[in-house]
Write a structure and sequence with these properties.
globular, binds nicotinamide-adenine-dinucleotide, alpha/beta, five-stranded parallel sheet, Aldehyde Dehydrogenase, Chain A, domain 2, Aldehyde Dehydrogenase, Chain A, domain 1
């Protein structure tokens, strides 16, 4: 059995606790990938102390040179794409096509970050006084605590760690307990690309211990967290109390709307991918399907035929459409919500049980599930399930569809199928989400655009694109007065 280590203070080390946990393949729980450190607070203390030293060195490295390291990281990820996709599917479960996409998102993010090293723009603006210049520029902040979920084992860490590094911060990284192998390989690649060792620290372990210790550490200046809204609330309380800079990306209950004038066949392709890709475990998964009356029955009956034909299985085997959900806890949560849906009077049209069969019995497989006649406001319709369960809601008008879309506490992504250009633009205006897709499913974000949600999905920051660099750097303003005399702003230039 391979025993993995933390990367702290420039070396691969055992955890101070001496304790480990097993990382298993969710498609076959008898397949143990390795044993990973179940670290303690002491490991976080050592990691943060080293990261502070790393910060002193890295913040002085010119941003274009920092970008050069990230370009090399992108090259190494591209070179090892197939191998990383395979190990990611083994520990996370989603099919290879999806884990290849996950690695590609990391590559795209690396190259974007590399080029940002030669921008990282500030502003130079006219001063209101003579012989005086005024400008803003960006400064590094300090040690960044990075806490990530299981569902995008490489892409999400890269969304956070690349801009954090490009801006000159050092990083203490805690990957989700279910995907520590991908996190480890990622850190190996950062080091191979030439990142100074003290600039990156990797501490494996439980969220309530290692995650909490990172968030609570007084020398961690900023925290970026992606995970559930419940955990984000705990992280947010600590950061609020300690006045830390915090980026939260949390839960979702995303809806696809199909209006009577929409392309039904296109919408069916979209909902199959949106609802059941990654076994429904995407923050942007389509978990609600809002159908206008005219197309409701036709679309639903065609959709059910397609869903019944989806093939569950090991994501590393050819022909698999849907892999397992991540662990036993996740499958039990799905089961709880299927019970809730039935108790609330929704119609279970397909699925609704664990998948059976020789090869499936060893893993956490759940049949793709569709409920119809789901009532707006019911728990099934409102709460995040994070599994392969789709709730269908019937509406009479576009306005009613928009209201149902908006009437949840989350606001990550939405989608609308229509052929009417006016309705499409109306949706962009009126849907309360960080992202709206027209004639495409609720998933499919690209690395060079801002990503994030409103309401209880986020706290106002964005990952991706140009906006994320605002979070990982501090704006500073410089005034240079070369007039040789005291010039008082707002006073000398406006004499009474
Ligand atoms: P989770 O909240 O259980 O865990 C996320 C991370 O937080 C893990 O690394 C975990 O160890 C850590 N953690 C747990 N308790 C902690 C604590 N007290 N202090 C600090 N860290 C702690 O989430 P998950 O099950 O891994 O991921 C699924 C959730 O993530 C879903 O709600 C999903 O919508 C959300 N998600 C959101 C986005 C987005 O961009 N909005 C993207 C992906 C996933």
């Amino acid at each position: 059995m391979r025993i993995f280590k933390n990367f702290v203070a420039g070396s691969w080390v055992e955890p101070s606790t001496g304790a480990h946990f097993d990382n298993v393949n969710p498609a076959d729980t008898t397949d143990v990938i390795g044993r990973f450190p179940l670290s303690g607070r002491e490991d976080v203390d050592r990691a943060v102390a080293s990261a502070r030293q790393g910060f002193e060195q890295w913040k002085r490295t010119p941003a274009p040179a920092r970008g050069d390291v990230l370009r090399k990281v992108g090259d190494l990820l591209a070179h090892r794409k197939e191998e990383i996709a395979d190990l990611m599917t083994r520990e996370m479960g989603k099919p290879l096509a999806e884990t290849r996409g996950d690695v590609q998102e990391g590559i795209d993010t690396a190259y974007y970050a590399a080029s940002e090293g030669r921008r990282l723009f500030g502003h130079t603006v006219p001063s209101e006084l003579r012989s005086k210049w005024a400008m803003s520029f960006r400064r590094p902040i300090g040690v960044a605590g990075i806490i990530t979920p299981f569902n995008f084992p490489l892409a999400i860490p890269t969304w956070k760690i690349f801009p954090a590094l490009l801006c000159g911060n050092s990083v203490v990284f805690k990957p989700a307990e279910d995907v520590p192998h991908t996190g480890t390989v990622f850190v190996e690649i950062l080091l191979e690309a030439g990142l100074p060792p003290a600039v990156i620290q990797l501490v494996h372990g439980a969220g309530a211990t290692v995650g909490a210790a990172i968030v609570e550490h007084p020398n961690v200046a900023l925290v970026s967290f992606t995970g559930s809204t419940a955990t984000g609330g705990i992280v947010g309380q600590t950061c609020g109390r300690m006045h830390k800079r915090l980026s939260l990306e949390m839960g979702g209950k995303n809806a696809m709307i199909v209006l009577d004038d929409g392309d039904i066949d296109l919408a069916i392709e979209g909902v199959l991918w949106g609802a059941f890709g990654t076994a429904g475990q995407r923050c942007t998964a389509t978990s609600r399907l809002i159908l206008q009356t005219g197309i409701h029955d036709d679309l639903l009956s065609k959709l059910i035929d397609r869903v019944r034909a989806l093939k569950l299985g090991d994501g590393r085997k050819d022909g698999t459409d849907i892999g397992p959900v991540i662990n036993d806890q996740a499958i039990k949560k799905v089961e709880r919500y299927v019970d809730i849906g039935q108790a609330e009077g929704a119609d279970l049209l397909c699925g609704g049980r664990r998948a059976e069969g020789k090869s499936l019995g060893k893993g956490h497989f759940y049949e793709p599930t569709i409920f119809a006649r789901v009532k707006p406001g019911s728990r099934l319709e409102q709460e995040e399930i994070f599994g392969p369960v789709l709730s269908v809601i019937r509406v009479r008008t576009a306005d009613e569809a928009f209201t149902v879309n908006n009437d949840v506490k989350y606001g990550l992504s939405s989608s609308l199928y229509t052929r009417d250009v006016g309705t499409a633009f109306q949706a962009l205006n009126d849907l309360d989400n960080g992202i709206t897709y027209i004639n495409a499913p609720t998933i499919g974000a690209e690395a060079h655009l801002p990503f994030g949600g409103v309401k209880q999905t986020g706290n106002g920051h964005r990952e991706g694109g140009w906006e994320v660099y605002e979070f990982y750097s501090e704006t500073k303003v410089g005034y240079i007065d070369f007039s040789g005399s005291l010039q008082r702003a707002q006073i000398d230039n406006y004499p009474t």
